[in-house]
Design a protein that fits this description.
This protein is α+β, with helices and mostly antiparallel strands. It folds into 2 domains: 1-38; 43-190, Immunoglobulin-like. The protein contains 3 helices and 12 strands. It has helices at 2-38, 118-125, 165-174, and strands at 44-50, 56-62, 68-79, 89-100, 104-109, 113-114, 133-143, 149-152, 157-159, 178-179, 181-182, 187-190. A 6-stranded mixed β-sheet has the order 9-8-7-3-4-10, with helices on both faces.
């Protein structure tokens, strides 16, 4: 009788351990799938810097071996002069690319962006020149090779239509930015390394 109880207890314990192992394997499998889904997105980003002449430049890099499409680089456009209330935010501007090829970095010189239409009206309204504009807080959205859309800020990577309302709102608001026409083909160069998750280095 004691042996039977011990056997039953051992069987129950073994079943519990097997269930725990199965659950751990499932969790690991999910984590691996999520990591794989994000692998290309972590290798795509946009950032801002200044060229040798001090003019702002917009960089969009794809360090993955597959192209990304429907790429938007959106940024805050501000009056560079600081007043008592801080800098005046003039709106959201952006540039659009049909695609960015594998292991490719595109560089757009802001001096070659067409500021006619909306932005020309903004400059006239606030009595500013192109040189008075400050570009900050880049945000990029793109569609990966699997057809998933992503939004990437300076600190976060977020998947669109993944149940997060804030991410979805950010993505759809990006479509309403006032985009600037590129007057020259952006400079394209091969990324220093392909596969890095930090395109800004």
């Amino acid at each position: 009788m004691v042996i039977g109880i011990a056997t039953l207890a051992f069987t129950g314990w073994a079943t519990f351990v097997q269930a725990q192992v199965a659950a751990d394997q499932l969790d690991q499998s999910k984590e691996a799938a999520e990591e794989q889904a994000r692998s290309q997105a972590t290798r795509t980003a946009a950032w801002l810097d200044q060229g040798p002449d001090g003019a702002p430049r917009i960089h969009v890099a794809n360090r993955s071996p597959d192209p990304v499409s429907q790429v938007l680089a959106v940024f805050s456009v501000e009056d560079s002069h600081t007043s008592q209330g801080g800098r005046l935010v003039l709106g959201s501007g952006g540039v659009a690319f049909e695609s960015v090829g594998p292991c490719t970095e595109l560089v757009v010189d802001v001096d070659f962006l067409d500021l006619k239409g909306h932005w020309n009206s903004v400059l006239k309204k606030h009595k500013l020149s192109r040189e008075d504009l400050l570009f900050r807080h880049p945000l990029t959205s793109f569609t990966d090779s699997k057809g998933d859309s992503w939004v990437r800020s300076e600190s976060d990577l977020m998947k669109v239509d993944d149940g997060d309302a804030d991410t979805d709102n950010a993505y759809y608001h990006m479509q309403n930015a006032h985009f600037m026409t590129q007057q020259a083909v952006p400079a394209a160069k091969q990324t220093p390394s392909c596969g890095s998750s930090d395109p800004a280095t």
